[in-house]
Amino acid sequence: MTERISQDMIIADMLKIDPGIASILMASGMHCIGCPASQGESLSEAAAVHGLDAGELEKAVNEYLAKK
After folding, report:
1. Number of folded domains in the chain?
2. Has residue 45 been placed in a domain?
3. 4-58: per-residue pLDDT in tens?
4. How many other β-carbons are positioned within 10 Å of the β-carbon of residue 14?
């Protein structure tokens, strides 16, 4: 079964599932993924800080994971 992420997951945990997720987040405008502070934020919190739609990010990441 393919792993899925949710909006309440911590960024660091998402990257442990698949480091390739970082490129999706960075392409959406989250260029601070390497910052230690961002590693402890949930996808929802990070999206809010960047004015992004957490639901759209969740969908994009899960579509990426489903193709693996």
Report:
1. 1
2. yes
3. 999 999 999 999 999 999 999 999 988 777 777 777 899 999 999 899 999 999 9
4. 25
